[in-house]
Amino acid sequence: MPQPLLGLLLSLAVLFSATHTASAIEVKVSAQALERTLQAQLFNGPQGRYYIRGDANSACYVYAESPHVTFVQDRIVVRVHARSKLGTSVHGTCIGVSLSTNTDVSLIPEAEEESVGFRDARIERLSESRELNFLLVPFMSHKLPAQMKVNAAVLMRQLLSRSTETIGYALSLNSLKLHSLLVEGDSLVMDADADLKVD
């Protein structure tokens, strides 16, 4: 569960602590929060690695690590460091080449009902190895954006389930609808309508 977004959504809950009807809200999400969420949802294996090919015990492998998120104009840019040993495994040793590179993909954030989604994945930088790029492109343009997607309503309901202990009120979310997600400066700005009940 991406804990960083839970803390983020706490501020959203506080905004509603005095209302019962659906209200428009604006929540700002930092690049660091998205980065921590990506680490929690995808780069959660041993040593923070995601294996694209093989695993920690493979002689030949490709893995990505160290995701870094920034905002550039209207896009979210994700950089990962990729390491690989490409070749043939012979008696537990990879006969081939070792490669290490940074690769970037940029995405446009998209509101999908209750979820923060991403579209228009554009590879900005790849390695000089065609074989490595053959594995990196589908990971960067499909797998990574899909794993970044977050259902904000589910996370908020998980957070609110502990609201009596944390703020002294029983809060419950009846509905949440994200209308837009825009990169503005150093924040991802979420505009939404939410219906929150306070007991």
Folded structure, characterized:
- The chain is an alpha+beta fold and 199 residues long.
- The model is unreliable at 6-20 (pLDDT under 50).
- The longest helix has 19 residues, at 130-148.
- The chain has a single domain (3-152), classed as Bactericidal permeability-increasing protein, domain 1, CATH 3.15.10.
- 29% of the residues lie in helices and 50% in strands.
- It has helices spanning 3-15, 31-41, 130-148, 152-160, 163-167; strands at 23-30, 50-53, 61-72, 75-90, 93-112, 115-125, 150-151, 171-184, 187-198.
- The two termini are 26 Å apart.
- It is elongated and about 65 Å long.
- Strands 2-3-4-5-6-7 form a six-stranded antiparallel β-sheet. It has a three-stranded antiparallel β-sheet with strand order 1-9-8.
- α1 crosses α2 and α1 (3-15) packs across α4 (152-160).
Map the helices and strands:
Blueprint: H1 3-15, E1 23-30, H2 31-41, E2 50-53, E3 61-72, E4 75-90, E5 93-112, E6 115-125, H3 130-148, E7 150-151, H4 152-160, H5 163-167, E8 171-184, E9 187-198
Antiparallel strand pairs: 1-9, 2-3, 3-4, 4-5, 5-6, 6-7, 8-9
